[in-house]
Specification:
- It contains 3 helices and no strands.
- It has a domain of 86 residues.
- It is rod-shaped.
- With 139 residues, the protein is an all-alpha fold.
Length: 139
C-alpha cells in the first residue's frame, strides 16, 4: 500500500533519541555526526597544491588554503571529539606547509636560473659584438 491510498497505515511514531552515554560522541539531529569539511578541503588543497607546486601561483595559493583549512579543521576536531577527520586536517596542514616551502624554493631556483642565463647571454652578446667589430671593421 502507498501513502496516497485511503486506509494506508500511518507511519510509525518517531522514537526519541536517547542521550549518549558519558564519553560517547554526541550525535546531531537526524542521526548524523557533525562533519569536518574543512579537514577534507585541507587535504584536497594540500594534495593538488603539492602536484602543482611548480606553477608557483597555484602551488602557493593552494598551499596557503590547505594551511588555513587544516588549522581550522584541526581546531574544530580538538574542540569537539565528535567532529571527525582530525588526521585529515593535520595531513592537509603538513602538505600545505610543504607545498608553500617547495613553491618558494622553486621560485627562487627559477629566478636564479633566469638571472644566470641572462648574464651568460649578455656576456655572449658582448663577445660576439667585439669579434664582429674586429672582423668587419675598416682599417
Amino acid at each position: 500500500m502507498t501513502d496516497d491510498q485511503p486506509g494506508a497505515a500511518p507511519p510509525p511514531p518517531q522514537q526519541p533519541v536517547p542521550p549518549a552515554a558519558q564519553g560517547q560522541p554526541q550525535v546531531a539531529h537526524g542521526g548524523q555526526q557533525p562533519g569536518n569539511g574543512l579537514a577534507v578541503a585541507a587535504l584536497v588543497c594540500g594534495i593538488v597544491g603539492a602536484v602543482l607546486f611548480w606553477t608557483a601561483v597555484g602551488g602557493f595559493v593552494l598551499g596557503v588554503l590547505a594551511i588555513i583549512f587544516g588549522f581550522i579543521g584541526k581546531r574544530r576536531a580538538d574542540a569537539n571529539p565528535a567532529v571527525p577527520h582530525r588526521g585529515l586536517a593535520i595531513a592537509g596542514l603538513v602538505l600545505g606547509i610543504l607545498t608553500v616551502v617547495f613553491t618558494l624554493i622553486w621560485v627562487v631556483a627559477i629566478n636564479n636560473a633566469v638571472d644566470d642565463a641572462n648574464e651568460d647571454l649578455e656576456e655572449f652578446n658582448e663577445s660576439f659584438e667585439q669579434e664582429f667589430n674586429e672582423d668587419f671593421s675598416t682599417p
